[in-house]
Amino acid sequence: MSRFEEVLQQNDCFSDAELLDKIFKVFLSNHSEIKEKFQFLALYFANMSGYPSRKKLILLNEKLMDYIFYSFNASDTNVRRMGIAITLRNLCSEQSSHVMLLEKGILPVLLLPLMGSEEYDEEDMEKLPLECQYLEDTKERERLPIIRRALVQALSLLCYTKRGWEYLKEHSVYYVIRELHKWEADFDTKEATETLVGFLLVIDYSKMNHKADELVTPSVTEILKDIPDFVVS
Questions:
Q1: pTM higher than the cut 0.70
Q2: In 3D, which of 110, 12, 24, 23 has the Cα closest to residue 53?
Q3: Cα–Cα distance between 65 and 88 in angstroms, integer?
Q4: InterPro entries, per this entry (predicted)?
Q5: Of 171, 173, 174, 177, the residue nearest 148 (C-alpha)
Q6: Residue 110 and residue 155 in contact, taking contact as beta carbons nearer than 8 Å
């Protein structure tokens, strides 16, 4: 174990601005060996984003936010994708940041991994974010249920503000989640899609029934022991 890894284990790095800056630089590195060796930092950020004060520091770090938004892709490692997905979910629990997240383009980031190659009515298709329109026949959904579930939960959390709820309804999210529900085989993820569909079918926002304790799963440190070996690759 390197000295850097020891420090990470022993300290809350979010309380040390200089060390936190170094962590950001390591995590954002394009060097293949560094990316592979420190991919676990994605899980570290996922865990830290569950704390309100740390979550705000992440939201204020433009470079890290850009990375989280624009690097989430199917070719990345399972650990990195999972950490980013859970971080995105936790960021969406910050209701005061919903407008900023939507303006920054979080919807296609959350939605695209949940989509297959289904076709939609022209009117519904045109309401989807541009990145989610007219996908190739070979398009596949995110393969890990825990990641799909985190993304669905993130979408549900956006429904906790009227603007977030309206935005999802305006951009055909219901139709994507309806297709996901038909396809989904994982019980917990299917249940999460039903919660989201329930939000999206509400006509009057004032009658929305939010139950946060039913939406968000335990922090990443509590679920790591249940992750199968093949995920860590």
A1: yes
A2: 12
A3: 10
A4: ARM-type_fold, Hgh1, Protein_HGH1_C, Protein_HGH1_N
A5: 177
A6: yes
